[in-house]
TrEMBL record, chain A:
Signal peptide: none
Gene3D superfamilies xref list: Glutamine Phosphoribosylpyrophosphate, subunit 1, domain 1
Name assigned to this protein: Glutamate synthase domain-containing protein 1
Domain Glutamine amidotransferase type-2: 2-350
GO molecular function, one term: transferase activity
A Pfam family it matches: GATase_2
Residues at the active site: 2
PROSITE patterns: GATASE_TYPE_2 (PS51278)
Origin organism lineage: Archaea, Methanobacteriati, Methanobacteriota, Stenosarchaea group, Methanomicrobia
UniProt KW keywords: Glutamine amidotransferase, Transferase
Keyword DNA-binding annotated: no
Automatic annotation (TrEMBL), chain B:
Domain Glutamate synthase alpha subunit C-terminal: 17-184
PANTHER family: GLUTAMATE SYNTHASE ALPHA SUBUNIT C-TERMINAL DOMAIN-CONTAINING PROTEIN, TUNGSTEN FORMYLMETHANOFURAN DEHYDROGENASE, SUBUNIT C (FWDC)
Organism: Methanoculleus thermophilus
Superkingdom assignment: Archaea
Sample GO molecular function, one term: oxidoreductase activity
Name listed for the protein in its UniProt record: Glutamate synthase domain-containing protein 3
A Pfam family: GXGXG
Position of the signal peptide: none
Length: 351, 245
C-alpha cells in the first residue's frame, strides 16, 4: 500500500505545509503508522546558495562531532542548528533532527567533473550514511528539506510543524512498512541534492538496481527502494545527461511486444535504451513521484499495479494515490485524470 | 410512507459514518442521503435489504463490498474497487471510478457512467442464478476482465477513448462486450472474439435500456450499435502453464 501525494506550483507560488498535511492524512488507511515524511522545495530562501543538509542523529553529542569534522574537511559550514520540533504524544522520539547550511569546496571533486559541488555532496552523503556512526543525511539539496519520522502522517507533520514551511513543490508519503525496521531514516522521501523521491510499491528488482548504481560509486545504506531510485535519477539525469522522459522510459520501458509495433526510429531508440539500461529497469508494483527544483514527475509500473491520480487547477499540478487527497487540498480542482501505465506525468516550473 | 435519513459526512471518519448508515437501515430507512462525502471507504459494505443510499461526493475505496440488496447511487466519482465481491443489489456511479471495479463480483449490477481504471471486472464470477453485470459508459483500461470467471461486462466507450489492451487476460468464464471493433492485438491470449448474435443482442438489450434510463441516455442507439463479443478460448487458459498433465 502506502499513500503518496505531490503538488507543485508552476508559477513558484508558495504553499505552506498545512494543506499537504491535510491531503496526506486523507490516506491514513494506506499506511500503518510506522512512518511518514514530507519534502519541500523553496523553504530556505535565506540560505538559497547553501546545500541544506538535514541529518538525523541517534545521539546529537557524539555523532555530531564526527559529522562536523567531516563537513569541515569537504567545505564550509555557514550555519547549523537543531531543526525545531514539537513533542507529540503518539510519537516516540529516537533521533535528533539537525540542519546544516553548507558550502562544499568544488576543488575537492574528482577532476573533470561537470558538477563538482554536487559530486562533493554526493560523496559526503554516501560516506556519512554508510559509516553508521549514528548520523544519516536525509536531504542534501539547495533550498530543500526532508522531514520524516516513524509515526502517523499528522503526528510527523505536527512534530516538525510542517505548516511553518513554505515551498513551491511538496512531496509527501504515508508508509505501510513491509520489510524494514522502524527507523526514522527509513520512510520516504529520499533525497540526494536536487532529487527527491516518494514511492508506493515494492520494486522486486531492488538487488539488480542497487548493484547497478553501486557500480557507479553510490552506496545504498538504507535498504529502501526510494533510496536506489533517487540515486538512479541522479545517475541518469545529472551524470549521463538523459532527458527526464528517457530516464523514466529506462526505469519503466515498454514491453518488447510493444516496441515491435513502433515506427522504426522509435524501435531503435527503445531497443537501445533497454540494452543500455537493462539493469536500471524497475520491476514489481510501483508508483513513483519524484521532484527536483525544476519539475515534478510521476510514473507507474508497466502493469499498473499501483494507483496514480492526477489533478490540475490553474498553475497547480497534483499527483496522488487517491483522488480525495487532491480534493482535500483543492476542492475546486479543474480536472482529474488517471494516466495509463507508462505515461509519465511531468510538470515543469516556469522559467 | 418512505422514510428518508440525511447524513452530513463532512470531516467524518468512515467508521462512524458506516455505523450511522447501519443504524438508519435498522431503524427502517428506505432512503439514506449522505452529503459531503470525501473518500470515506466501505460505504454500504455488507448491507442487506432494499434501501437506496445516495452518496453526494467522491466515494472511497471498496464501495458496496459484500453488499446484498441495496441500491447505491454516487453523484461523483468512486475510488478503487466499487462492487468488490458484491452479492446483489445495484451500484450506479455518475462519475468515473478507479482500478479493479467490480472486483470478484458475485451478483447484482454496477453501472459507471464515466471511465474505469485498470483491471475492471477482475475475477467476476457466476453461479447458477447469480450473474453479475458491469456496464461502463466511458472507456476501460488495460487488463479488462482479467481472470474473469463469469458474468457480463459491457463497455460502451461513448467518448471513443478506449485504449485497453490485454483484454480478457486469463478469462475462463463470462463474456466481455465492447461497443465497436476491437483489434485482435488488444486481446490477451486465452480470449477470443466471436460475433454478437441477434440472440445475444436480445439478451443484453434490457441491461442497456436500464443503463440508459439511469443516466438519461437514448436507449435505442445503444441497443442497435455494433458490438464485439469476447469470450474465453478455453475453460482452463493456464492448464499447461503451471502443471503438466
Amino acid at each position: 500500500m502506502c499513500g503518496i501525494f505531490g503538488v507543485m506550483d508552476k508559477g513558484r507560488q508558495m504553499m505552506d505545509g498545512s494543506g499537504i498535511r491535510e491531503a496526506l492524512s486523507m490516506m491514513n488507511e494506506r499506511g500503518s503508522g510506522e512512518g511518514a515524511g514530507y519534502v519541500a522545495y523553496g523553504i530556505y530562501p535565506d540560505y538559497r546558495d547553501c546545500y541544506a543538509l538535514h541529518i538525523l542523529f541517534d545521539n546529537a553529542c557524539e555523532s555530531k562531532a564526527v559529522v562536523d569534522a567531516t563537513l569541515e574537511q569537504w567545505g564550509t559550514i555557514e550555519h547549523d542548528e537543531a531543526i525545531p520540533t514539537y513533542d507529540q504524544p503518539n510519537l516516540r522520539v529516537n533521533s535528533t533532527p539537525w540542519r546544516y547550511f553548507f558550502k562544499p569546496d568544488p576543488s575537492l571533486a574528482a577532476p573533470g567533473s561537470e558538477s563538482p559541488e554536487k559530486d562533493v555532496i554526493a560523496n559526503l552523503v554516501m560516506q556519512i550514511n554508510a559509516s553508521a556512526k549514528g548520523a544519516k543525511i536525509v536531504s542534501s539539496g539547495k533550498n530543500v528539506g526532508v522531514f520524516k519520522a516513524s509515526g502517523w502522517p499528522e503526528d510527523v507533520a505536527n512534530y516538525y510543524r510542517i505548516e511553518d514551511y513554505e515551498g513551491y513543490i511538496w512531496l509527501a508519503h504515508n508508509r505501510y512498512a513491509t520489510s524494514n525496521p522502524e527507523l526514522w531514516d527509513r520512510p520516504d522521501p529520499f533525497n540526494l541534492h536536487d532529487w527527491s523521491v516518494v514511492e508506493n510499491g515494492k520494486i522486486t528488482s531492488y538487488g539488480t538496481n542497487r548493484h547497478y548504481v553501486e557500480s557507479f560509486g553510490y552506496t545504498c545504506s538504507m535498504s529502501t527502494d526510494s533510496e536506489v531510485i533517487a540515486y538512479m535519477l541522479d545517475l541518469l539525469v545529472r551524470r549521463h545527461g538523459l532527458d527526464i522522459n528517457l530516464a523514466i522510459r529506462a526505469f519503466a520501458p515498454p514491453y518488447w511486444e510493444d516496441i515491435d509495433q513502433m515506427p522504426e526510429a522509435e524501435q531503435k531508440l527503445n531497443r537501445a535504451l533497454r540494452f543500455a539500461y537493462g539493469s536500471a529497469t524497475m520491476n514489481g508494483p510501483f508508483t513513483v513521484l519524484a521532484a527536483n527544483p525544476e519539475m515534478m514527475v510521476g510514473f507507474t509500473d508497466r502493469g499498473k499495479l499501483r494507483p496514480m491520480v492526477v489533478g490540475e487547477c490553474g498553475d497547480r499540478l497534483y499527483i496522488a494515490s487517491e483522488e480525495v487527497a487532491i480534493r482535500a487540498m483543492e476542492p475546486k480542482v479543474e480536472s482529474i485524470t488517471r494516466p495509463a501505465a507508462g505515461e509519465p506525468v511531468i510538470g515543469r516550473v516556469a522559467q | 410512507m418512505a422514510k428518508q435519513v440525511v447524513i452530513d459526512a463532512k470531516g467524518m471518519h468512515y467508521t462512524p459514518l458506516n455505523q450511522q448508515i447501519r443504524k438508519a437501515i435498522e431503524d427502517g430507512a428506505d432512503e439514506i442521503v449522505i452529503n459531503n462525502v470525501l473518500g470515506q471507504r466501505f460505504i454500504g459494505d455488507g448491507l442487506r435489504g432494499n434501501a437506496t443510499i445516495r452518496v453526494n461526493g467522491v466515494a472511497g475505496g471498496d464501495l458496496a463490498m459484500f453488499m446484498s440488496g441495496p441500491t447505491v447511487i454516487v453523484h461523483g466519482n468512486a475510488e478503487h474497487a466499487p462492487g468488490n465481491t458484491m452479492d446483489s443489489g445495484k451500484v450506479v456511479i455518475h462519475g468515473s471510478a478507479g482500478d479493479a471495479v467490480a472486483h470478484s463480483m458475485r451478483g447484482g449490477k454496477v453501472f459507471v457512467r464515466g471511465d474505469i481504471g485498470y483491471r475492471g471486472g477482475i475475477h467476476m464470477k457466476q453461479y447458477e442464478a447469480q450473474r453479475p453485470v458491469l456496464v461502463v459508459g466511458g472507456s476501460a483500461q488495460t487488463f479488462l476482465g482479467e481472470y474473469m470467471a463469469g458474468g457480463l461486462l459491457i463497455v460502451l466507450d461513448l467518448n471513443g477513448k478506449m485504449k485497453a489492451h490485454e483484454i480478457g487476460s486469463g478469462i475462463h468464464g463470462g463474456e466481455i462486450i465492447i461497443r465497436g471493433d476491437v483489434d485482435d492485438a488488444n486481446l490477451a491470449s486465452g480470449a477470443k472474439k466471436v460475433p454478437l448474435t441477434e440472440e445475444d443482442r436480445r439478451r443484453i438489450a434490457p441491461v442497456l435500456r436500464e443503463f440508459a434510463a439511469d443516466f438519461g441516455l437514448e436507449p435505442e442507439p445503444l441497443v442497435n450499435a455494433d458490438y464485439t463479443r469476447i469470450v474465453p478460448a478455453s475453460a482452463r487458459p493456464f492448464a499447461g502453464k503451471y502443471t503438466w498433465e
